[in-house]
Amino acid sequence: MTVSPAQKPIFVLQGPNLNLLGEREPHLYGTTTLAEIHDSLVAQGEAAGVAVECRQSNHEGQLIEWIQEARMASCGLIINAAALTHTSVALSDALAAYPQTIMEVHLSNLWKREAFRHHSYVSPYATGVICGLGAEGYTVAMQALIKRLKP
Ligand code: DQA
């Protein structure tokens, strides 16, 4: 299926250190690179007729700017806020103002890890939370989000 130019894209936002996927702690995060994850999400969107816009930043303020931009510019949001998941009230507030469906993704299973990773400032605003499936989690999140897109 081809992507309609009128359809707003799904935004995929990736937080700090996720640019290092593939080399960073592969026993936790796997060996798939961020570029490979993004290529596969764009292809998955293309097959469903939805454009996908993928971005990564190591900066909290940049991610907040993109969430604000996404309010008007996107039809849904997939976010792995990485460590900011556990710390950022500001990011949480930005997500609270996002009107479309949000899917939260984590590559690792947060519940098998340190207690400080058990709290998420993202989850209260997410329709679904997928963690522990590695790169596959993004595919699952995309599939679930596409199903829930408003016409
Ligand atoms: C992560 C889990 C976070 O706790 C961690 O800070 C990350 C990655 C994950 O995808 O498993 O950077 O979000």
Structural commentary:
There is one protein chain. With 151 residues, the chain is of the alpha/beta class. The protein contains 5 helices and 5 strands; from the N terminus they run E-H-H-E-H-E-H-E-E-H. The chain has helices at residues 26-29, 34-48, 60-73, 89-96, 136-147, and strands at residues 10-14, 52-56, 76-80, 102-106, 128-131. It has a 5-stranded parallel beta sheet, with helices on both faces. Helix 4 (89-96) links the parallel strand 3 (76-80) and strand 4 (102-106). The chain is globular, with a radius of gyration of 14 Å. Bound molecules: 1,3,4-trihydroxy-5-OXO-cyclohexanecarboxylic acid. The site of 1,3,4-trihydroxy-5-OXO-cyclohexanecarboxylic acid has 10 residues, from loops.
Can you summarize this structure?
With 151 residues, the chain is of the alpha/beta class. The protein has helices at residues 26-29, 34-48, 60-73, 89-96, 136-147; strands at residues 10-14, 52-56, 76-80, 102-106, 128-131.
Ligands in the model, by name, code or SMILES, are: 1,3,4-trihydroxy-5-OXO-cyclohexanecarboxylic acid
- Encode the helix/strand succession as letters: EHHEHEHEEH
Largest sheet: 5 strands, parallel
Report low-confidence residues grouped into runs of 5 or more.
none
Per the CATH scheme, the topology name is Rossmann fold
Instruction: Tell me the number of structural domains.
Output: 1
Q: How many beta-strand elements?
A: 5
The geometry reads as globular
Question: What count of helical segments does DSSP give?
Answer: 5
Distance between the termini: 16 Å
The helix-and-strand class reads: alpha/beta
β-sheet strand percentage: 15-25%
CATH superfamily: Dehydroquinase, class II
Q: Helicity level, as a percent range?
A: 25-40%
CATH architecture: 3-Layer(aba) Sandwich
Radius of gyration: 14 Å
